[in-house]
Amino acid sequence: MILHLLRSSPFTTLDIGQSLALMDQDDGLLLMQDAVYAIQGQGQSWFEQLQQRQGIYILKEDMQARGLSHCPGFIEQVDYSKFVTLTLTFDQVVTW
């Protein structure tokens, strides 16, 4: 089980669809830094892929720092403490 940390905005150079294709079903995905903008991706094909996955997390503090307040229900908001717990729960951590 791998926890994937996405840091770049999916509206720039990051191909979030490609990242999702490389993930196994039991892997987790944490949106952090500019990747939190992914919650604004309704209508994008990769957004539908996100909705179909389990284990999608978003760092609350990064959302707040970017003025984002609404988070879709399929994404679990986590704080730094829960972030640390997630890194210990998964076997590996990969940063994109």
Care to describe what's here?
The protein is of the alpha/beta class. The protein has a single domain, classed as DsrEFH-like (Hypothetical Protein Ychn, Chain: A, 3-Layer(aba) Sandwich), CATH 3.40.1260.10. It contains 4 helices and 5 strands. It has a 5-stranded parallel sheet.
Distance between the termini: 16 Å
Number of E-state strands:
5
CATH topology: Hypothetical Protein Ychn, Chain: A
Number of domains: 1
- Annotated CATH homologous superfamily: DsrEFH-like
Low-confidence stretches: none
Oligomer: single chain
Which overall shape is indicated by the principal axes computed on the Cα atoms? globular
The percentage helix is: 25-40%
Our Rg estimate from Cα atoms comes to 12 Å
| Helix-strand pattern | EHEHEHEHE
State the strand order across the main sheet: 4-3-2-1-5
Instruction: Please outline the major beta sheet.
Output: 5 strands, parallel
Q: Bin the strand percentage.
A: 15-25%
* Average pLDDT number: 90
> How many alpha or pi helices?
4
CATH architecture: 3-Layer(aba) Sandwich
Under CATH at level 1, the class stands as: Alpha Beta
Give me the secondary-structure category. Answer: alpha/beta
Pfam families: DsrH
Organism: Bowmanella denitrificans
Protein name: Sulfurtransferase complex subunit TusB
